[in-house]
DUF6113 family protein
Amino acid sequence: MSNGGAGSSLARPLRPPTPGRAAAHLGLFLLGAVTGLAGALVQAAWFPGGLLLALAGAAGLFLGGAYATGSRSGAVAPAAGWIVAVVLLTTSRPEGDFLFGAGGGSYLFLLGGMALAVICATVGAGRRSAAGSARLDK
């Protein structure tokens, strides 16, 4: 088993992201935070349809980010924004107010969204080989 030749992606040094790519990831992060906030409001308002709508919106954003950037980091950026927003919404304030109740829908939204983030970041549009398709019937 070789650990990378001259043409291997392991042999190439990492390059810093371009300003456009960094801006795209920042925009996806912020869009993920907005989606998490909107999903938190919708999932409790119209249960169970709101829960499904909120999770479908999150999954669409995660996969859309992966396909828009052409890499898995495009799914990780909105997922990170979504998780940060949702976790900040779960903390209670000194007044005792919080956005999430202790119901099953809230836990399904939290755990389901995190599972979707992992699935979309894993399955999302990863790097494609430059050689083309490996199918023999073409």
User: Anything to note?
Assistant: The chain has one domain: 19-123. The CA atoms of residues 29 and 77 lie 5 Å apart.
